[in-house]
Write a structure and sequence with these properties.
alpha+beta; 6-stranded antiparallel beta sheet; 21 strands; Ribosomal Protein S5, domain 2; Double Stranded RNA Binding Domain
Length: 403
């Protein structure tokens, strides 16, 4: 039996709030507003403004305040086929947004389009065939690689996702046809559209269903009478309820208090310990603290505390949508075998979500280092604005202390 994922969608005049729950807990949260949501993954028709070979980059007008940033270096198999040199200002091309614009930086773009399905990632402009790193078994990898090559016939690129492991070939083929049709439609609309414009943007819900339908049995509750979901996919349990009923579910899952906790620094653990989480631009840190002072037998108690914290660490990282470098300061535990146990537990907790994480191991100073792929905005960026009073430092100057 797969785990159950219950997605609760609260619609209002302003847009939709999407709460993703599993194990009766809030796991992910999205604010879905037509004008403010992430464009990561979207296809846009852009106009090349400037090519700067010395920077190895081009700047592309995609209709945002800042021009998009396009590195001239793309994947080898893309470059071979598409001759990267031919880029010139004034050109109108289809680009994919890899990272949203943030602060003073424009969106990060690519010309090497990748369209994800449940089983496959279709890449119309390169010839690379690969297998998801989540699949570890060599034999399975080899088999999928052969299937992929047979599907591609060296005319496009493909990545076999984890879910392709359990899919029949006709299911793979069918999805491939859908993705190809989507790409053809994009190309046709690009011919008639005026740059800059967004050609295709996947809804938050469509992305969730695509990525989680294999791993979870999904149930959706929604109060949205106007914007019903396009077509509920088969096998998804889907109900539409009144505002009052929805509010009751929202409360039952403690969505608001979970959000409040995930926007703060301190998270209480079940056994009395705490996590202190600091989100910063360059890296985020998680500090694990035990409930009380521990004297002797520190090793075993530390291990227990660290293992118990893994579930909440993984959940907070996912819910906050932290990305980039994450440093975890576990309770001091120098034993290599115990460290390996903690890494294994953390990896297993992290494997429940769709965003890719890599646990790199303990540094020489005893911190656990990991990285998580950046996708969309953090929870904080979705819901908060920097504090004007303290310029987002959390401190204010006490003038009387100055002299
Ligand atoms: Zn402040």
């Amino acid at each position: 039996m797969p785990d159950t994922m219950h997605i609760i969608i609260k619609a209002s005049g302003k847009g939709r709030s999407i709460a993703v729950t599993a194990d009766n807990k809030l796991m992910e949260y999205y604010v879905d507003k037509a004008d403010e949501s992430t464009l990561a993954g979207a296809l846009v028709l852009g106009r090349v403004e400037r090519v700067v070979p010395t920077m190895g980059a081009a700047f592309v007008n995609i209709g945002q305040a800042q021009n998009g940033f396009l590195p001239l270096d793309e994947m080898e198999s893309f470059t071979k086929i598409n001759q990267a040199a031919s880029l010139a200002s004034g050109q109108e091309l289809i680009f994919q947004i890899k990272k949203d614009a943030k602060d003073q930086k424009g969106a990060f773009l690519t010309r090497d389009i990748a369209l994800p399905g449940q089983y496959l990632i279709y890449m119309p402009l390169n010839r690379y065939v690969g297998v998801s790193k989540r699949i570890r078994d060599d034999h399975a990898r080899q088999k999928l690689l052969e299937t992929g090559k047979a599907l591609c016939q060296d005319t496009f690129g493909l990545i076999m996702r984890e879910a392709s492991l359990l899919a029949r070939t006709d299911m793979l083929y069918e999805e491939l046809q859908e993705l190809k049709a989507l790409w053809n439609t994009m190309q046709k609309s690009a011919e008639y559209a005026k740059a800059p414009t967004v050609l295709h943007r996947e809804s938050v819900l469509a992305g969730l269903l695509r990525d989680y339908a294999q791993r979870y049995s999904i149930r959706i509750t929604c109060n949205d009478k106007v914007n019903r979901m396009p077509v509920p996919p088969t096998g998804i349990d889907w109900e539409q309820v009144s505002d009052v009923q929805l509010e009751a579910q929202w409360k039952a899952y403690h969505v608001d208090s979970s959000l409040e906790e995930a926007l703060g620094r301190r998270v209480m653990l079940k056994n009395g310990g705490t996590l202190m989480i600091d989100e910063r631009e360059a890296l985020s840190t998680v500090d694990v603290n035990t409930a009380s002072f521990v004297g002797d037998q520190q090793g075993d108690i530390a291990l227990k505390q660290n293992l118990a914290a893994c579930h909440d660490i993984a959940r907070q990282i996912r819910l906050r949508n932290l990305s980039g470098i994450i440093i975890i300061d576990f309770v001091d535990m120098p034993d290599e075998v115990q460290r390996a146990q903690v890494i294994q537990r953390l990896e297993s907790e992290l494997s429940r979500e769709r965003v890719k994480t890599v646990v790199h191991g303990f540094t020489s100073l005893g911190f656990l280092e990991m990285t998580r792929k950046r996708t969309g905005a953090t929870l904080r960026d979705q819901l908060c604005a920097p504090c004007e009073k303290c310029h987002a430092t959390g401190y204010r100057l006490e003038r009387e202390r100055l002299s």
